[in-house]
Amino acid sequence: MTADARPAAPPSEAFRLRASNYSLLTLRLLSARPEEVLPALGDQFRRAPGFLRFAPIAIGLDDLDGQEVDFAALVSGLRKLEILPIGVVGGPQTLRAAAAGAGLPTLRSAGQKETEIEAPAPVAAPPAAPEEAPRPAAARTLLVEQNVRAGQRIYAQGADLIVMGTVNAGAEVLADGHIHIYGTLRGRAVAGANEDPEARIFVQNFDPELVAIAGFYAVREGLQNASIGRTVAVRLEGEQLRFEPLG
Amino acid sequence: MAQVIVVTSGKGGVGKTTSSAAIATGLAQRGKKTVVIDFDVGLRNLDLIMGVERRVVFDIVNVIQGEAKLQQALVKDKRVDGLAILPASQTRDKDALTREGVATIIEELSKDFDYILCDSPAGIEKGALLALYFADQAIVVTNPEVSSVRDSDRILGVLQSKSKRAEEKKEPVKQHLLLTRYDPARVERGEMLKLDDVLEILAIPLLGVIPESESVLKASNSGNPVIMDSDSTAGQAYSDAVGRFLGDDRPHRFLEAPKKPGLFGRLFGGGRAA
Ligand SMILES: Nc1ncnc2c1ncn2[C@@H]1O[C@H](COP(=O)(O)OP(=O)(O)OP(=O)(O)O)[C@@H](O)[C@H]1O
Ligand SMILES: [Mg+2]
User: Fold this and answer.
1) Which of A52, B26, B36, B187 has the fewest CB atoms below 10 angstroms from its CB?
2) Given the CA of residue B9, which atom of ligand 1 is nearest to it?
3) Which residue in B has a C-alpha nearest to residue A170's C-alpha?
4) At B225, is the pLDDT very low, low, confident or very high (cuts 50, 70, 90)?
5) Residues A81-97: pLDDT tens digits?
């Protein structure tokens, strides 16, 4: 079984504009000086090769107390590290204007700030802050023992995610690695959130609003009924999501 | 120590205030000293449904702002011993309620009462968060329809993460499902969710199912909580729920539509004259 992960636009149209939300890593600058930031980043790369390679990132300016930044130097340094800055977030207007001059537009965050994301209290590990050492995907596992309820969002950053309960409609679970759900998936599950096409989703009782792997998604409408209500493994094959019944 | 119980739902108009009034009255009828607090500042409904609106002098905001003593603001029920109401203000805005102010009130009430019921406003914003913050137990009021169930699910998540118990990593808030306005005939026609479907999604213990009943509206118009109308199905269902809450073992009733008379019933049932 397959579902069209990204339906192509009919040929008569040259383009379509759509509002979309993307999950981005933010590089929060704690120093205004590229000559400090760049070597520190380079160090982390050697420890986790390929993690951020060609990754689009936003540059966070909130922690700089308005100190001036040489954005041109920062951008060219980041590009050499194969990190692609696409804009800035936060910070004072003057700093954002300087960034815009260097080709970095201001991004507005679509929803809540990271710190406001609701997670059930007993979940021990809060999402690791992006400035921590990047880890290869699935180095760890985040275990959620209860149901994930409407309005809740759980992100297993750099990790696999195991949900022992149900993910209800209106709830969202994300993992950079694989996702295992031992109850029913009625909400959304996004695996390989850091663009890992090898990530998979395993669901005891499959009834989702949306599933995605490495950015390729299928909404409920595009799913074939055959897999609904069954135990299913989802993986990415090329650009197609495949749904295979288990057991 | 008193038990603090929040009556909450997320979605508006599902029967929180009706249920708060009925359950508070039922607990007091069973000899438990009970106070019910109206957290719906700006709307103030509970005192109407409890039939005490003509005796309200001060309200919770007056107490928090030091303009009245708690004892002055409490309205004692004249029908049932040991039942009191702390009304909401109709004129102040919602920001007049502070967490510290509510904490002080709850602490003081804890000395005199067994149960403190908090009738939450709708939504998942400030007022609703404050109403559930101090809860030991939560009665989640849900109607058998998709949007109400979804909102109840949200509120359950909020109880898990934003209550005082959650913040202090104590034993979680004890959760009860109260399914109200249940209309078995409409459920059978597929117009409303079945009890089992709601239970499967929300996955919390069932305190009771309150049937849709005209007596609820009559009760609120007359200011007598519907639990006092022991002839009505809704009143009986609320009594059952209170009993279960206190540990009684009572089977659930009113889950099936009353059987329509069959052909014989219609032919010989002493119906209308032709
Ligand atoms: N079991 C029932 N049968 C029939 N009508 C009911 C029942 N329960 C509640 N109602 C009606 O539903 C309406 C809303 O009830 P109520 O005010 O208790 O809801 P609420 O959740 O407190 O609303 P709000 O969110 O505005 O505070 C009222 O008109 C009430 O009479
Ligand atoms: Mg109300």
Assistant:
1) B187
2) 21
3) B150
4) very high
5) 777 788 888 888 888 88
- Please report, as a single letter, which amino acid is at residue B140: V
Query: Across the interface, do A118 and B158 touch by the CB < 8 Å criterion?
Result: yes
- Identify the band that residue B205 occupies on the pLDDT scale cut at 50, 70 and 90: very high
B143 lines ligand 1 (CB under 6 A): no
Could you tell me which of A182, A124, A115, A116 has the C-alpha nearest to residue A156?
A: A124
Give yes or no for residue B70 having a pLDDT over 50.
yes
- Containing domain of residue A65, as a range? 21-101
Q: Determine the distance separating the centroid of ligand 2 and the alpha carbon of B120, expressed in angstroms.
A: 7
Q: Is the pLDDT of residue A168 over 80?
A: yes
Model pLDDT, residue A121: 38
Residue contact B161–A120, C-beta within 8 A: yes
Q: Answer yes or no: is A118 within a domain.
A: no
A141: confidence class by pLDDT, cuts 50, 70, 90: very high
Considering chain B, what percentage of its residues have pLDDT values greater than 70?
A: 95
Interchain contact B124–A (C-beta under 8 A): yes
Write out residues 132-161 of B within 8 Å (CB-CB) of A. 150-151, 153-154, 156-158, 160-161
Of B119, B178, B191, B185, which Cα lies nearest the Cα of B143? Answer: B178
Q: Are residues A148 and A231 in the same domain?
A: yes
pLDDT of residue A234 exceeding 90:
yes
CATH no. for residue A70?
3.30.70.260
- Check if B234 has its Cβ closer than 6 Å to any atom of ligand 1: yes
| CB B40 within 8 Å of CB B78 | no
On chain B, the residues whose CB falls within 8 A of the CB of A121 are 160-161, 166-167, 169, 172
**Count of domains forming chain A:** 2
Q: How far is CA B96 from the centre of its chain?
A: 23
Confidence of residue A100 (pLDDT cuts 50, 70, 90): confident
Q: Which two tokens stand for residue A149?
A: 């309820």
Tell me the whole-structure pTM to 2 decimals.
0.70
B164 touches chain A (CB under 8 A): no
Quote the Cα angle for A184-A172-B200, to 5°.
Answer: 30
Q: In this structure, are A159 and A229 located in the same domain? A: yes
**Is A151 in Cβ contact with B154 (below 8 Å)?**
yes
Q: Which residues touch A118 (CB under 8 Å, ≥6 apart)?
A: A151, A152, A153, B157, B158, B161, B162
* Alpha carbon distance A110, B161 (integer Å): 22
Average pLDDT over residues A109-132: 40
B233 lines ligand 1 (CB under 6 A): no
Query: Which CATH number fits the domain that encloses residue A234?
Result: 2.160.20.70
C-alpha span between B149 and B174 (Å, rounded): 18
